[in-house]
Amino acid sequence: MGKLKGMTEDGRSVRMMWSARQWEKLQLEPYMDEDERIIVAVSGGPDSVALFHILREWSASPAGKRLELEIAHINHQLREQESRQEEQMVRELARSAGVPFHVTHLDVKAEMAQSGKGLQEAARDLRYAFLTELATKRQASVALGHHADDQAETILMRVIRGTGIAGLGGMSVVRYEKKVKLIRPLLRIPKVDLISFCEQGGYPYAEDSSNLSTRYTRNQVRLEVMPQLSKINPQISDALVRLGDQSRSDEHFLMQQAQEVFHNTVKTEGADCLILQAHWLELHPSLQRRLIKLILSYLLSHTRKKEADFETIEQFREACERQDRANFVIKGANGVNLVKEYGQLRFTGAVDGPEPFAYVIWDWRAQPEWMLPGGIHLTFEERWLEREGFESVDSIYAASFDADALLLPMEVRSRQPGDRMQIHGLNGSKKVKDMLIDRKIPRLLRDGLPLLADAKGRILWMPGVARSAHALISPTTKRILHIRTSAFIQSI
Length: 492
Fold this sequence. Notes:
single chain; about 500 residues; alpha+beta; Rossmann fold; Uridine Diphospho-n-acetylenolpyruvylglucosamine Reductase, domain 3; about 40% helix; elongated; cytoplasm; nucleotide-binding; tRNA processing
């Protein structure tokens, strides 16, 4: 890593110039591993310059962990000469420290024109894309110089926009982006301490002139709002940072509770999530919101769409509370919908049934197994009664027929308008639609249920629902056809 710098003229370590309390505020030990490669994002400002030297000092100390440091610099090319000077300064820092140096030149204006994003958002997205790609290639983590003032501003900006406990937590010390670990060890250190660290250590740094412009929201908060609040509470920054710490702790606990509820009461079925409304109504609204957030996170992971906002979460939460209607459909944002049927709440991306299907079966011996839409497995098994004997064990997913009484070809198909079935044990016939309603089959599942019909179109069997009075086993039966399906009507 090169010779350790950071010594004053009288030979004192910079570490000695900071109080023990200042060093205790650093969040290093739990978040970094021995011999971990860390790419330090150094803009040239006092915060990132201080971060690099702090990590070097800590890594070289007996109490620290050995780190393999590298420097990455992002030139946004927005301030021309200033940007070039900052790049050269950071390049010299890497050279003097003897660590690898990585640099990229961003075309932020082109990104704005192409994506329609604002300057700050476009610059941030390009910056993080570079850092995560570089870290992936280098098998490294990324250290960022966000400090206590940044944290306080972030929390206040979220309060102004309207946020919940999760937003009040501000930035996390560690988070992952595209599987890359991003570390912010300075979130409890005020900027004034970082400037002092650089000045006492003789470390050159640059001041970004754009930080003085109130054109950007963050600068308005920093230059106008925070000074006004500090007149009321001189320790406003510390107070907001404490609020963030407490909020993150509370949010972590509540999310743990919500995850336990998700595990115990929510059934995942493909890309759907189901929960009984009776279970839902037992939950506190705070857990309801977080449970919806977990459900949407699960569903949106299948669609790669953005996380739903507070209004969408509240729309779903209030709909889940409704008991005035047995069935309804709520179409939410991001393609996620809520379907209530027979006391069951289903979060799904689909509100329409599957496509119709039909398969003609001439010879079940040639093809005894069929895979139907929705992953339903259908199996035919023929037995000669007089030769082998056969004990019929019928259920809602298994039925036995007199093979010689079946009119071929048979057809396995989805339901059609006007379908009726002569149910075994009942006089006359009944509409399939009414049977499905009586059985309380969710509407989204009905068009995907298979029906077995004979050559005359008579429905022989509706797996999961009922069998007909046709082709029953009798004393004269010689061949039995036993048909079974996998269980496909899910319940929770």
